[in-house]
Amino acid sequence: MHADQIATPTGQDMKRGSEMNEISIINDGAIYVEDELIVSVGKTDEVLAELRRKNITKFDQVIDSTGSAVIPGLIDSHTHFLYAGYRLNEFYERVSGSSYMQIMQNGGGIQATVDATREVTYEKLKQLGLQRLNEMIEQGVTTVEGKSGYGLDQETEIRQLRVLQELNLAQPLDIAVTYLGAHAVPPEFQHNSEEYLNLMIDEILPQINEEKLAEFVDVFCDEGVFDYEQSQKLLEAAKKLGFKVKMHADEIANLNGAGLAANIEATSADHLIKISSEEIAKLSEKKKTVATLLPCTAFCLQENFAPARELIDNGCAVALASDYNPGSSFTCSIPLIIALASFKMKMTMGEVLTALTLNGAAAVNAADKKGSIEAGKVADLVLLKYPDYRYLMYNTGSNIVKKVIKSGKSVFEK
């Protein structure tokens, strides 16, 4: 109670266009939590008066938030955090001028991480995952999407998904699990991508469905990976089995991936560096798909940034995420995302907050339960060391998280 400011978007679904800048502000605020859920939010005196009327006068814990702004738990809705093997030399090759595709063609890129991940043990993979999740908690992340995609064979992909499911139980963060076997064409199928596609559809997806190992299925629809028709075939097969679908789209070249995402009503279309104005119009018209932008990736690849302003100004819902991975974005830095989105993508701080909370929740199909500070939602909260949420941008590049509460319980304090 006595938070200098409670700052949150509101609602049960994604916010589009100008709605993204609508942030509810409560000064001298309080939040009453019971059984992991938010019961009441408002000014401290009003919340306490309401509780007295209900004869609630004793609390298991009282947190004095004087001097702090409180925001919803942050949601990193696109990551590849579970892998083995780093690509340090490749990073410096790229900084020196080699392109992402050139590195892939020379045996680097995704395949380098695939080789290392195929070799690592289950327990080592779990240990690596825990270390990275702890990094995220310290930055205010309470829900994260985690993808497979560094196995590209049935055995390793299933192992990755099982580790993700176990990690979901073993630590505080909620993990939305995504199967991304279509991250690249493995070398054993290099000249027959259709055969690999059929393996995923006929054998791997049914096993994942039977074991309930993933909620989402994703595909890398781009130049040198999977084309429009192959992506459509995979995602339609996934939807028939009951999976929700996502897409890596329009990152390296425009194959109309965002258009496919809109047509197939994907939960999110991600990257979108090369998205066309026609696709933006389609995303706006269909209203089912969150445009998830990954500014750290564009920054590390020295690419143009996705057109956040055009997307928002045309009524689309935009989320922001880290794309944490060992190749194109070896960072889960929320402060870096905020700085790039603000200064390079021209998003307002209200839009950034919505993109990292309510719209991030929509991108993992959880906006009815998370992403805002409202009665009935999960008590995922972040206390900042400053009294106004806009310090997230103003204290540029710095982690100003003071305390993280997940499902009503403190999980990090600085």
Automatic annotation (TrEMBL):
Q: What is its EC number?
A: 3.5.2.7
Q: Give me the residues that bind Fe(3+), please.
A: 78, 80, 248, 323
Q: What GO biological process, any one, is recorded here?
A: L-histidine catabolic process to glutamate and formamide
Q: What is its main location?
A: cytoplasm
* Swiss-Prot/TrEMBL cofactor(s): Zn(2+); Fe(3+)
Q: Which GO terms describe its cellular component?
A: cytoplasm
Q: Which residues are recorded as binding Zn(2+)?
A: 78, 80, 248, 323
How many cofactors are bound and how?
Answer: Binds 1 zinc or iron ion per subunit.
Q: Pathway membership of this protein?
A: Amino-acid degradation; L-histidine degradation into L-glutamate; N-formimidoyl-L-glutamate from L-histidine: step 3/3
- Give a short account of what the protein does: Catalyzes the hydrolytic cleavage of the carbon-nitrogen bond in imidazolone-5-propanoate to yield N-formimidoyl-L-glutamate. It is the third step in the universal histidine degradation pathway.
Family assignment from sequence similarity: Belongs to the metallo-dependent hydrolases superfamily. HutI family.
Q: What is this protein called?
A: Imidazolonepropionase
Organism equals: Liquorilactobacillus uvarum DSM 19971
What gene does the UniProt entry assign to this protein?
Answer: hutI
